[in-house]
Amino acid sequence: MRLSLAIEAGLEIPDGPLVVRHPTVETDLSAVPDAVIDTPDWIVAQAMTTQGRQLEEEPAVYAATVIILPRSKELARDLIAHAAATTNGPVIVDGQKTDGVDSLWRACRERTEVAGSVTKAHGRCFWMRADANAFADWAWEQPDIHGFALAPGVFSADGIDPGSYALAEVLPETLKGRVVDLGAGWGYLSAVAQARGAEFVDCVEVNAMALECAALNVDADRAAFHWHDATTWKPSVQPDHVVMNPPFHTGQSGASGRKGAPELGAAFIANAARMLGGSGNLWIVANRHLPYEDVLNTYFASVTELPGPPGTEGYKLYHATRPQTRGTSPAKAGRTVTRHRARR
């Protein structure tokens, strides 16, 4: 880890509480064995807890803060602004060049004295004793997106995702019963489901920051908010509908990586089939290049492609029904696959 090199190069870790913000499951924290962890990612939190790491529960002033650079520029700057205001000692930033660490290092040097820097493995670790005033304007400001609460670094933090919008447009005008929103993000589809008459919505999201937004964006009296992995979460009450705009690459929920991973969406679909009853409905949107048809046809006996609204031709919309139990052949179950004509 570059942090070990930084310590060898002169970085002094002071006595007192140390926090590591936004590590990934691959982050090597051996150089800071007593650090507490701040992560919005449920998968990372489980891994860190398994390692015996303590998760941050209350805001505090720290002797040092380590920031593992996220891909989002807005989130990175917000983390530095927060660290500068809540750290008595060094603020340490470690990240990959592909995630913009070099440009961030240069930007920090223009605002404060950067005490040191080391590079290795296509990345950089730099440290500074940051003045809160030097980075106050980097704190993230809430945009005005139709009254929705958002957060930096969450999926579609700059507005309503076009795919989610397309799916909302094809949902039934009346959506009766219970709905599960798998990968709920900041709650747009959940809010739409409630507006269409859903009695109750379970919002399942791996990113705690997004889930906190969802709790503000939907009617909390008719919803529950589950910080969990959407591919394994199990409902306590069987839903009538599952809606989803699943992630299509690692890192979309906050984990590391940029590689396309259609298996994530496939796992979402499989979990939806497990939780739905015989009369349940799956409503899903996906980028047109993603090969979800075979997965849908494996887990559902009836799969219908729906026409999207104008301007959303890059997305595929599906309504799937008659979920299949494990081991049941879709062909033997009388599978039907339908493609609707576009509405005029």
Describe this structure in words.
This protein is an alpha/beta fold and 344 residues long. The chain has helices spanning 2-8, 42-50, 73-86, 101-109, 132-135, 162-170, 188-195, 208-217, 262-275, 293-299; strands at residues 18-21, 36-38, 64-68, 91-96, 114-120, 123-128, 178-182, 200-205, 223-227, 241-244, 281-287, 300-306, 315-323, 336-339. The chain folds into two domains: 2-138, Rossmann fold, CATH 3.40.50.150; 162-339, Rossmann fold (3-Layer(aba) Sandwich). The strands form two sheets. Strands 9-8-7-10-11-13-12-14 form an eight-stranded mixed beta sheet, with helices on both faces. Strands 2-1-3-4-6-5 form a six-stranded mixed beta sheet, sandwiched between helices. Helix 3 (73-86) links the parallel strand 3 (64-68) and strand 4 (91-96). Helix 6 (162-170) runs parallel beside helix 7. The longest helix is centred in the first third of the chain and has 14 residues, at 73-86. The model is unreliable at 252-257 and 327-344 (pLDDT under 50).
Quick recap of the structure?
The chain has 344 residues and is α/β, with parallel strands linked by helices. Helices cover 26% and strands 23% of the residues.
